[in-house]
Design a protein that fits this description.
This protein is an alpha/beta fold. The chain is built from eleven helices and 14 strands. Helix 6 links the parallel strand 7 and strand 8. The longest helix has 16 residues. Bound molecules: adenosine-5'-triphosphate. Adenosine-5'-triphosphate (ATP) binds next to helix 1.
Amino acid sequence: MTTVVETRGLSKVFSSGRGVKDVHLQVERGELFGFLGPNGAGKSTFVKMLVGLLRPTSGEARVLGLPLGDLRARRRIGYLPELFRYQDWLSADEVLRFHGRLCKMDALTLAKRAREVVAAVGLEGRTHERVRGYSKGMQQRLGLACALLPQPEVLFLDEPASALDPGGRHDVRELLQRLRDEGMTIFLNTHLLEDVEEICSKVALLSDGTIRAHGSVEDILRPESIWEFTIGGWSPSYLAQLRETSAPLHVGIEVTESSDSKGYAVLEARLEHAEQAAWLNAQLHDLGLSVYTVYPLKNRLESWFLALTEPDGRESQ
Ligand SMILES: Nc1ncnc2c1ncn2[C@@H]1O[C@H](COP(=O)(O)OP(=O)(O)OP(=O)(O)O)[C@@H](O)[C@H]1O
């Protein structure tokens, strides 16, 4: 595995005392890495250091094996800043040409790549229009197109979908997955935890400038051993019977919600494997109860995020 981003004790502390402090992080080639944190945690500051726009106060870091700001690395990086503004008197075609020339692309390659990235971000047929008339979502698509133009090996995206509608977010998720499948490394700053759950393989959580946790999304979302059963025909007397029959299996059963008048209940059972869920389901049927739903409770990134950041992790407004 090749390490694309590596930081050791990387810090950028502003005069206010805020910023990024002592971050140790590693991102491997081909990873879609989610970088999370409350407002003001330091995510944008961290990325600006990685792309060579901010000088660290201390620590070390390498991107693509080269020191921060090295021109050879910057040529292989794509970056979409969080707050960007293009020259709004230009058309999107002109913005792309301008970026291509900054990247020293020859005219033929630039024209070909511009067509590809415009199609990738879904702006076909609109690129002759002036940016002034673009919606926020279209501007964000254009920003993504500019970041992709030089066919970067590593892409740093600072909230690329914040202005997009649900359809646009879906398109960006698909695009990022496709780019990852093609081998691109993607570093994604975002507040959209559901998107991270769906597409990222690893995450790190920054709060108040320091890393609070990092790991694989799969591990964080690993289902708990608790299964939920929604049942009809329930009465409280069934609980003792269920506990008695299930005692030898060490299955713990709790009623978390019930309504005597409507005869329904929600049970939570602590189970070790799926076969026990099937067994319990059969027991409930034998008691003459109707089982409407059965599913394992899942961790969510949101609860992980909140548990690690509340109440001190959020920037005071
Ligand atoms: N150029 C600067 N000078 C002084 N302080 C700064 C500067 N840039 C950022 N900060 C401060 O550093 C802290 C981290 O800011 P940063 O923009 O990196 O956070 P963030 O995690 O990206 O926030 P958000 O999710 O709101 O975009 C904030 O307290 C911010 O006010």
